[in-house]
Amino acid sequence: MPPLARWILYPLTLLLGLGLIAIAMVAIVTVILYPQLPSLEALTDYRPKVPLRVYTADGYLIGEFGEERRNPVRINDIPPIMKQAILAAEDERFFTHPGVDAIGVLRAAYSNIVSGGKAQGASTITMQVARNFFLSREKTLTRKLYEVLLAFKIEANLNKNQILELYCNQIYLGQRAYGFASAAQIYFGKSLEQLTAAEAAMLAGLPKAPSSYNPVANPRRAQLRQFYVLRRMHELNFLDTEQYSEAKQEHLNVKRNVNDFGTRADYVAEMARQIAVERYSEEAYNQGLRVITTLIKAEQDAAYASLRKGIMDYDRRHGYRGAEQFIDPKEIAKNTEEEFEDALSDVTEVDGLYPALVLSASTSQIKAYRRGGEMVTLSGDALKFAARMLDEKAPANKRLRRGAIIRLSPGPDEKQPWLITQQPEIEAAFVAASPIDGAVRALVGGFDFNRNKFNHVTQAWRQPGSSFKPFIYSAALEKGYTAASVVADEPIVISAEETGSQAWEPKNYDGKYEGPMSLRTALAKSKNMVSIRLLKGIGTNYAQDYITRFGFDAEKHPPYLTMALGAGAVTPWQQVAAYAVFANGGYRIQPHIVRQIQDSRGKVLAEFKPPIAGDESLHHGQHDA
């Protein structure tokens, strides 16, 4: 044999032998390991942990609680654009390969050799399903072999649509979101069918690295990944040139608050959560329970907007208090977007009050960076509210200057898109319920749940003031007074012997006295002197006992004449129940916020049936739940 032939033949023989040995070893390992592969029951009987969800009476989601945020969907309910984005990002030959993509493996191997490291992987969607359900994240040869073998086993037992459905529901996408349906709600506040191509591409880019490509934490990197997915969709003819161009230019409104479900009812969602957990313990968080509240979306939205406007108007009347906090100018010395985002990263989100970093400030203009990438210029009327904090004489720890953190709210028009505002220092509460059955239609427990979780409707004990007078008048009517009874509206002095402390000289609010008048007129004019004389006439102990019929706590209303002016303590929850008695003709109702609790399939597990005003047969009945 010629020497040249030997030089060619021997290496080829060696390579062939090594290849055969490798194939034999793989075959032996496969024969040994394949029977040891786990059962696919977790896939064929897929039962993911589904969170507890809270809805309004008219079907709108207002809360979600659980370790994993999931919303399992059938493959037929996943729109084509979402499937195409996933295939473009993760596995373009998914519907043609047997679980392992040979072309992808060769491409990845070539790329890794050329780059000198592990630049690319070659995991298919099927392999990712195998890894997510059965394997750890460790990067070892044994684990990879198990992954490949499991992929073949999965492909042998499930069809492609079943595998893709499992992937779409199981994959982790950041922000505690598992599955694309949940991620669509968390990142964009939309259902899958509402997603645009640009939004679908953003979500499809997350599985590769959910934290690195998170559009909330890393908007720039997320956009680069999104552009890559869109380009792949264009190359695979999922998008034509015009659609591709439009998708790249689309501005995405990414939710920063994962608990923003459109209708702001955080306090009610928390109340409903407590009820569900009290009844079903920790299992409530993973069984897919649906709590149907009594809220009406339109009424809740109106209550929320009204309360916040009232608080903001009140706060604005009391002037601007200055910068919320300051960032060391050295931390933003390079003037990069990354520095600005880092500076704002720990600033608390408050609905409608957007944090911004002041880059420069003068008496005529403020330039600021708003979280998310927008540069804002404020001048003219937009500065009026904060004008005194732009003066050099303003306190140094409040004056607006470079590095100051401020709040912005949307302005009235395009000429004035942003206004300076601030977080209010006061709180308020609102609750509205049906006087017939006590179903709460709207409840707002405070200005912002994320800032203060204290529920001012159920937990805030406050003096009711003159709003308590109708209950004193009701006690008087029970004692024999009538609306036409006449009582003097004149100054009164309560001696120290009667008060047990010191003499008391109460006055009317306006300091005016109108002499004898009917109870009807006195109540309409909220006359303090008449209320005090009325309570003195019927007896404080009698009144203290009588008000318990409306649901008030006797111990919160000591039997003193100051009770006539509302000096005791009530909650708005008690007040709405008590006033319902007047509205429904004398029947006491129990306010409630939950109507039903259902399982994941919609079967009613518990139903709340409170007594109905006017139905005597129900007054002594028991609630079903």
Summarize the structure.
By secondary structure, this protein is of the alpha+beta class.
Task: Provide the descriptors you would attach to this structure in a database record.
disordered C terminus; OB fold (Dihydrolipoamide Acetyltransferase, E2P); five-stranded mixed β-sheet; alpha+beta; elongated; six-stranded antiparallel β-sheet; 17 strands; 38% helix; 625 residues
What does this molecule look like?
This protein is α+β, with helices and mostly antiparallel strands and 625 residues long. Among the domains are: 3-36; 68-249, Penicillin binding protein transpeptidase fold (Orthogonal Bundle); 325-421, OB fold (Dihydrolipoamide Acetyltransferase, E2P) (Beta Barrel); 461-570, 3-Layer(aba) Sandwich (Beta-lactamase). It has 20 helices and 17 strands. It has helices spanning 3-33, 41-44, 80-90, 102-115, 125-134, 141-157, 160-170, 180-188, 197-204, 219-235, 241-249, 266-280, 297-317, 337-344, 469-478, 496-499, 519-524, 528-538, 540-546, 572-583, and strands spanning 52-55, 61-65, 69-70, 177-178, 290-293, 325-326, 354-361, 365-370, 374-379, 404-410, 418-421, 430-433, 440-444, 486-489, 515-518, 594-598, 604-607. Strand 12 and strand 13 form a beta hairpin. Helix 5 (125-134) packs across helix 6.
